[in-house]
Fold:
Amino acid sequence: MMNKLVKSRLFWPLIALIVLLLFNAIFTKNFFSIQIVDGHLYGNIIDILKNVAPLALLAIGMTMVIATGGIDISVGSVVAISGALACSIIDDRMKIFGNGLITALVIALISGIICGIWNGILVAKVKIQPVVATLILMTAGRGIAQLITKGKIVTINSAAMVNEYYFIGAGYLLGIPFAVFIVLIALIIVLIFVKRTAFGLFLESLGTNNRSSHLAGIKVDKLILITYVVSGFMAALAGILISSNIKGADCNNAGLFIELDAILAVAIGGNSLNGGRFSITSSIVGALVIQCLTTTVYALGVQPQIISLVKAIVIIAICLFQSNQFREAVFGCFNHSKKSKNLLSKKGAQIS
Amino acid sequence: MAIEPLLTMRKICKDFPGVKALTDVNFTLRAGEIHALLGENGAGKSTLIKVLTGVEKLDDGQIELNGEGILAKNPKHAQALGISTVYQEVNLCANLSVAENIFIGREPKKNGLIDWKTINTRTKELLKKLNIDIDVSQILGQYSVAIQQMIAIARAIDIDAKVLILDEPTSSLDTTECEKLFAVMRQLRSEGIGIVFVTHFLDQVYAVSDRITILRNGQLVGEFLAEKLPKIELIGKMIGKDYDTLSQTIKNSNDDKNTDKKIFLRAEKASSIGNIEAFTLDIKKSEVLGLAGLLGSGRSETARVIFGADKLSTGEIVINGKKETLNRPLDAIKKGIAYCPEDRKTDGILGNLSIRENIILALQAKYGLFKFIGHKEQEEIADRYIKLLEIKTPSREQLIKNLSGGNQQKVILARWLATNPDLLILDEPTRGIDVGTKAEIQKLVVQLADEGMAVIFISSEMDEMIRCCSRMAVFSEKQKLGEIQGDEISEQEIMKMIAGGK
Structure:
């Protein structure tokens, strides 16, 4: 049982999260205190859950893309596009769409899907390497967002639906941030799709070896396309949350470098960037680790100049601890049988 | 001949979780001999070599080289000690030049920069010693696998090797290429290098080996002089069974009723540009149809066209009397066709997935995304085929890459049998597989045909083709030359057709 737990992909990310929380329990004052103000929960923990929402959404899509052996570095730009569209519509700057809340959301989400289809076609059909293929939209995307907002920062303070829109990213339902519900619903839908259909199996299969998978009858191109569409959709949803939270769209800064955090979340979740086996739940824990770390660093009052450095060191440590070889080197023979297995798998060899 | 032992391995033991890979195995190699190491898949050959070269840790036992105790910590250390290995798959960089490949990691330097001139001239000299005359500044990838193999050997012996281990070096070579390799091996032998030769091809064992050590189930069966051990006895010792009973069980039983068999698939003037020229071929139910020919003759390409893996340029495929378009493998699978590809490693197995997942994959693909096979049913299917095909594994959740080649092949077979196909295409299903498993697979092929399945069988080994097939189409130079059946099928007849076709 213990052995199974240790081998689970979820184990090390969870340990990292628990260690971070324990650290806070000791060194950060009132880290775990939760107050109720106006029927809403307040506190560091609630903040983490609320702020992690966009990153968690991106991590869901990114995990699936990475499972195919690909990568999507355009999500930050998609965040900007979706936020620009949603805010422009809410603020009634795009007359053809009107200024309805639902219209704004639907159009923003469709823009994410279109971005995903674009990426997917470049990768699956045109066969451009995923980094290069998504680099195109990463660079062009912010330009597109600028075109939508005509180069301005769009604020929606005076718009008719501002409160409703603000609620999505910053509101509370039953005392809990509404964004948390969005993440949970997205996660549950995706997990059902992955686990209750053959999608998860096919994804792991084609990520492991797409030639074999093709010959076994899997529609490799179609599945790869789907993962980029999911990633684009999640990015658009994240863009809505981010722009809603600040009641405005800033094309230059919304979601800047967030693609790197999303990839990091997947990596901390113990997923191989080579594709194959994956766990979305682990990536979510990875996102929580990143957010928890950020909150911790701020709560400790670390000087702003060295925040990135502190984060980098902690993340290096987490990644090292996930490596069997490193743990063995540090703690001696952690588990002998495990070592021989790893060696075997590394050489791609066989017992014969 | 009282030659001093060069390498002595005594009472070698190695356990893997759940498997005793080696128990008290002794192995002695003398300088200037070619020593064949034989055994079925899972007998412990590779493990013995891995222990010797430091890939795996030794659990118990001693290793002596030139009378001194050694223990290689890793392959690099083994090399430094004088033990070099050339693996089954060429372990070189196809995108680097021949000379770069030979000196990679130990480039001679001049003034802190790499001395390309020395590299090229020394490579040239080195290859000349092995009677290979090629342009060493060319990219390795453009030479044949045989040449690449020789270059791997050249690299191995240039690092001052006393012991050279060749792990299945011939599995991707044709006959003339093998001869070249053997010539090199004989020459190295005369220079006093001890060569360990691991192979599945028994004829090759007799062609070059002086001595034979046989392992079975991780234990030593014995060491023999090659000339004093007849092949039949050798096989008997490897599988621990009588060879006669084996060869009888795989005798073809369905020759006579050939004429009235129903046609399942008909390829009418089908061609695929660059792969295979137009051919017409009937595939009948209850029959094993062989596609004979040399490597690259178009036999595998024919199979790929029928499976929809390569696009049809002209002609048509008719299945059960209906014209069908096969754009991708999935289309063929839905029409009841199954295909075990030639290259198990790159086209067959999904290394990081479990046996269970590997088995149900094609069936799930046939069902589609939404008709998901439940976990319980997956387990039942996997267990059924593990039992039926006697796949040796501690559990169905074992990763397929941890299995031996023969068992991997069985898993791929299981994957296709699970789809309940009408036509099963087997491209080199027994390559790199031990005698016992080979016989099992051949038997299964004939049995499946008896039960009404159409089978296409492709193999480089003429023996097994002749033993299994009731009809054969012969290919050469990407063309179908003709068909033979029944009593006409013989090695001479096939050779004559291929020779005449050129």
Notes: Residues 42-301 of chain A form a domain with the ABC transporter involved in vitamin B12 uptake, BtuC fold (CATH 1.10.3470). The radius of gyration of chain A is 21 Å.
